[in-house]
């Protein structure tokens, strides 16, 4: 019990040292003149550099309070990168060994960050293989499989307690449209869209939740059909979209899905990076595509309001991949036309 109390105290102290993340207003005069304001909550400023820092903290507290983690436990996670980076951080904080099971195409930058925090990267051939391999490693080591794809939607207190949804609405309070018309958030586990969707309903806001889903992901089709047995090739946009339906993706909490092509995601990533004067990751590009689709619909229909989304992580993690033109052409295709089209929507 002493170790448990110490572990929880260490996580709570780490949280107390952290400030909230910034809300960035996007300077898009073409929309602003029509009464439409766009915002990004910058989750890249967490200690581990991404939105997944919140998830990892919640998962560790959930596992500790459920009695699943003990002194010396090996922590195992299936992750394409950012969750593993953040979980490696918290495992090191508690002095626990950490293993991340991930596809071989995970960016070298993320692998280096996991290693920096003392984690071990166990690479598998495909995204669909991470689940069983993680369970096997946890059993072999006598450790605990964190299983973000099952527990992400329940580990966070969705009613408030300074979760991401409460923070968003608090920061929007003095804007001209304090209650967003839309919150746009991509889904990896589905935990963030679930937290936001529940909070919006609990607070009785008129806000709707939109999930822009990358090509290859099954979430969009699951949202349409309710068929939880669906499988697919998976997403090539790191961190979002899945080859199977995950338990944490709650379709009834999502008001709208938008399918986004890979070239649109990367083109939007580049355009948004130029707008902000700093590099953002590809999943943020996917979010930006969703924001622009909704903003253009609102403008054409004479509607006013705010659209709020997330800057999930910084682009420096993807210099050798999504920010490398040769890599993009080889793996995803030519983004030139997509970038021109996205840029034309901003005027």
Report a brief summary of the structure.
This protein is α/β, with parallel strands linked by helices. It has 14 helices and ten strands.
Structural topology:
Blueprint: H1 2-16, E1 23-25, H2 29-32, E2 36-42, H3 52-65, E3 75-78, H4 82-94, E4 98-103, H5 108-116, E5 120-124, H6 130-141, E6 144-145, H7 148-155, H8 164-171, E7 182-184, H9 191-202, E8 208-214, H10 219-225, E9 256-260, H11 262-276, H12 282-300, E10 305-311, H13 325-331, H14 336-344
Parallel strand pairs: 2-10, 3-4, 3-6, 4-5, 7-8, 7-10, 8-9
Antiparallel strand pairs: 1-2
Textual characterization of the structure:
- The chain has 347 residues and is α/β, with parallel strands linked by helices.
- It has helices spanning 2-16, 29-32, 52-65, 82-94, 108-116, 130-141, 148-155, 164-171, 191-202, 219-225, 262-276, 282-300, 325-331, 336-344; strands spanning 23-25, 36-42, 75-78, 98-103, 120-124, 144-145, 182-184, 208-214, 256-260, 305-311.
- Helix 3 (52-65) packs across helix 4 (82-94) and helix 11 crosses helix 14.
- The N and C termini lie far apart (60 Å).
- The strands form two sheets. Strands 1-2-10-7-8-9 form a six-stranded mixed sheet, sandwiched between helices. A four-stranded parallel sheet has the order 5-4-3-6, sandwiched between helices.
Major sheet: size, sense and barrel closure? Answer: 6 strands, mixed
- Termini separation: 60 Å
Rounded average pLDDT: 94
Could you state the order of secondary-structure elements as H and E? HEHEHEHEHEHEHHEHEHEHHEHH
Helix/strand-derived category reads alpha/beta
How do the strands line up in the largest sheet? 1-2-10-7-8-9
Radius of gyration: 19 Å
Q: Strand content of the residues, in percent?
A: 5-15%
What is the helix content? 40-55%
Oligomer: single chain
Globally, the shape reads: globular
Q: How many distinct beta strands? A: 10
Unreliable residue runs: none
Number of H- or I-type helical stretches: 14
